[in-house]
Amino acid sequence: MEEEEIGVNNPVEREEIEKNKTKKTGISGVIMSAVNWIIMLCDELHWSFVMGVIAVYGISQGLSMGLSRVTMQYYMKDEQKIQPSEAQISMGVVRFPWVVKPLWGLLTDVVPLSGYRRKPYFIFAGFLGVISMLVLSIVDGLHLVPAVLCLMAGSAGVAIADVTIDACITENSSSHPTLASDMQSLCGLSSSIGALAGFIISGFLVHLVGSKVNEKFSDATKAMWTTLKSQHVWKPCLYMFLSLALGINIHEGLFYWYTDGKGGPLFSKEIVGSIYSVGALGSLCGVLLYQNMLKNRPYHDLLFWTQLLHCGSGMLDLILVLRLNLNLYIPDYLFVVIDEGVSHMIGRLKWMPLLVLSSKLCPCGIEGTFFALLMSIDQVGMLTSTWAGGFVLHILHVTRSEFDNLWLAVLIRNLLRLTPIFLLFLVPRTDPNLPVLPSEISKTKRDTENLEMASLLDTS
């Protein structure tokens, strides 16, 4: 025993042990590191919470988004035969259920069904999504309006499930503040891996298949208003909205150009799906980079550099549309793959600190409602961005077959991406591992009575 104790306490031998540990590199080392990280989260936060995040973010959002994005775009172009500006507006309408996320959050926080506050909404969300997609796939010759309504219903199903699990995430962020970044990284990883899998097969699939409720409402509303009045909250909210709204979205115009045979490179469905899968892979790399290197950086500094890189990555689209890549002897497909991977990685790096910050702005007791409110603000920003992009495409006369001014739309978008840098004074210069809310707002009563998913929050 004495020899063993001497061996363990010997600095030289201890250093050798540490060196041997660091030799576990390569794929096996990465896999074991990821497994140990998941086990740590299960131990600290309960396995049911981790599985819930993976199910909602990985399957309901990531995988379904990967499968449906290409499908919806080709559906709008080939079945509905509408212009890119109209498709842009329609896609914005489909995202409207995410704008009203506070409504779903309020329901899950204060309106239990049959004594349960979570499970019924998961079930309802599942049925809503399945039924709406069945109607869309079975009914032939569906008019644009009912088709968009079906897509909205499916989007609402995903949004309701998202709100329910987000409530658990924000509560855990309050009780485990040092794990807030890890939880958002788990969400991002699940979403990115799910989207990667969905995008990989999407192109081929498209090719082949074508009592005190009023009081609780009042209390929740007052708590939300009190929180929103704090400058620690409304300033970051304003920044998140403006940073999203000012970066106009013209993706539908680029998609129509990708698949055009005259002005564009005429990518096939399979190639489009593979391009998007590279984007999902880039997003995954962004999450990994954030988790391992950047999660402890102050919000302000990280957002400055990611926003600057976001503007720079947009110039790759400009080079592509002007076909300057051909002058550099870089084929269109290779350049698009590089563009998609880089832009999505930077976009994810830009988004992660905002998610962490949002999770720390939620007061106890109405976490689901308030986080849903914050996310709805983001959705309003993205909706504004989408519709503004559609307006720009329309004004510049970018249509199904005319792309002469598409380069100008890309240039306008890239210049607008610089503007959020001048709004960074709205973002706190704090350590992301520390609380953001003042103590008088964050320390409110938490009610987990009749919460059948309490194991997601309480591991004792």
Automatic annotation (TrEMBL):
Pfam families, A to Z: BT1
InterPro entries: BT1, MFS_trans_sf
Cellular location(s): Membrane
Keywords: Membrane, Transmembrane, Transmembrane helix, Transport
Organism: Spinacia oleracea (Spinach)
A Gene Ontology term for the protein's cellular component: membrane
Record-stated family: Belongs to the major facilitator superfamily. Folate-biopterin transporter (TC 2.A.71) family.
Domain of life where this protein originates: Eukaryota
Protein topology in the membrane: Multi-pass membrane protein
Predominant cellular place of this UniProt entry's protein: membrane
Name of the protein this chain belongs to: Probable folate-biopterin transporter 3 isoform X2
Lineage of origin: Eukaryota, Viridiplantae, Streptophyta, Embryophyta, Tracheophyta
TM annotation in the entry: 47-67, 121-139, 186-209, 238-259, 271-290, 302-322, 380-399, 406-427
Coiled coil regions in record: none
